[in-house]
Amino acid sequence: MKRTILVVDDEQxxxxxxxxxxxxxxxxxxxxxxxxxxxxxxxxxNLDVVLSDLKMPGMGGEEFVINCRKERPDVPVxxxxxxxxxxxxxxxxxxxxxxYLTKPFEPEQLEIAVHNAIKLRDILRxxxxxxAAVSESLGAQRMIGESHAAKLMLEEIRxxxxxxxxxxxxxxxxxxxxxxxxxxxxxxxxxxxxWVAINCSAIPRDLMESEIFGYVKGAFTGAAxxxxxxxxxxxxxxxxxxxxxxxxxxxxxxLLRVLQExxxxxxxxxxxxxxxxxxxxxxxxxxxxxxxxxxxREDLLYRLDVYSIVVPPLRQRREDIPLLAKTFLxxxxxxxxxxxxxxxxxALEVLQRYRWPGNIRELRNTVERSxxxxxxxxxxxxxLPMTIMARTGAGNSGERFSPKKTGDxxxxxxxxxxxxxxxxxxxxQCHGVQxxxxxxxxxxxxxxxxxxxxLNIQINRVVN
Length: 464
What we know:
Strand order of the largest sheet: 2-1-3-4-5
Number of strands: 16
CATH class of the largest domain: Alpha Beta
Number of helices: 20
CATH architecture of the largest domain: 3-Layer(aba) Sandwich
């Protein structure tokens, strides 16, 4: 089979001899007279093997091997050396070269070395294809669900994953937007490159710029040494901005420049650095409404929203709830070393009745809490959190309480316990914020305040 070989040598005669031998063997030969010039050719997708002289002006063979391996680890490099530089050639083997030839060499030696390198290239290519297939399979498995909505979403992910296109992922809080972004990365050609994520609402505004772009020594008080930013850490891979709607306007303009020019400067530096990153973003806010309010740049929105994926809330894919719950149960039971392997049918039926305002995140938390309460080998209705019981009516239908459990307590006392437990559960999930807890329970904030006072419930607000 005809293969593409790149020959890097500053001596025209050596180039001509190698070209004649390799073209005579049926290969296509590319030539470069320096390491710097050759680096432009290593990105050729059809390139199979590189032959490089060790001693060249400018970038020598040792440095070229290191750079070539960094850019194309799938392409074997053969070093050509003289007797006096064999030690350097051996060092190049440690740096990633596949083999070396010592001048002068016979045509047969050259052909054998190239033939062996081609076999190595084929093995590396097969490994990459196998890893890609496994990665695609694992990536698809992340998106658990058999519902029509889940299948449509996975189809969209597979459609956009192979390209560098920027993707905007929208959906309610806890619906799995980061999971969608990670699956896009895992199914893309960048799967073996860095994945870097940042939450725009979790980092203070005055720290966000240096977090994204990094900074040089002395850029500001306390900058004792330079720091690599997240953007540079993601070089060659994928950068995921979660909650992009919370990004400060001043940083929006700087991000826009990165998207337009594909370059950036660390804080405190005039040096411009190129960046090769795919951008994925997510938000649970209406960015178009933020644009109308003057809180989000319209030109940035156009750059980010080249392709959009809407993640459906869990209540719109109820048929996926049993599968998701069982998957979380397997993971959490293994982590907690608990011998619980299933849900009772009645418990699954209650989970499917619930509306899941917190979506998949809330479902996972519910499974974890139920697992902590479980004393048998299956999670029963009694093990589910109070909020689930109260809002599905399971407690009032006798699925949670029975005369044996209530003893001498009358109905009012029984209902009071259910109400107290539901409110405590909601406050816990909402970190003590009453407005959010009221919305979670489907009642007004004033009504919640009266119930808290009536039931003498203590509020412990968690400050993040």
